[in-house]
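Sat 14:20. Reprocessing the chain from the morning session after the first attempt stalled halfway. Input below, unchanged.
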Amino acid sequence: MRRLLVLSWLSLVCALAVVAQEEAGCAADELSLQQSTLASFLTLDFAADPDAALANLFRLGALYQTLALECGYAPNAAEVDRLLEQALMFASLDDLIAAQSVGADVATILLELDEVYGDPLQGQLLYNGLEPALGGVALGCSGCHENEAVAPLTAGTWTRVQDIRLALPQFAGYSHRQFLVESIVQPMSYITPDYAGMMPEFYGGQLTTQQLADLVAFLDSQDQFLEDE
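Finished this time. Tokens:
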């Protein structure tokens, strides 16, 4: 579990580091100016005020790390492991997982999804439990959605949403993506009739924004013809 979380943390940190180095503020002279400006405000006079100096030392370190990440630095595995150890001094594993999860606020999630590209192949692996979600858990999507007595079949998901679900009065004004996201993170908002299964409500806490985007992209690829509907 710890190793999986380390890898998840590494992926998160590296994702922050993909900002192009050529962006404004990352040229050599601009970096030097930012560094000196920060140092001039957060002074380190340990003799005069050791408590304030320690606080400023911590804040400088955090600001320098953020600046380096934004300008393209990718921490190595040892550095990421150290960051994780430090984080665990102040937060539990559950806290770290929750901080990375999309949660259940559909409006906020839709805005976040506008910033990422969903990979349907990666979504298929997640859907089938072949790639872990947050905390190393395997999603159980296919276990229910490959049994038509338990839940709507995976095949035809896009068609079913487009042709049937969005035609219902309660979904007037919904986009296709909004319906899918709400179905995943707030499954009790709409219960599909005539199925034995009940969608659990914990997926918003098991998925990152990227993982949810991948799942939605996979479900969008399921546009098979619905013979019985």
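The CA atoms of residues 102 and 208 lie 5 Å apart.
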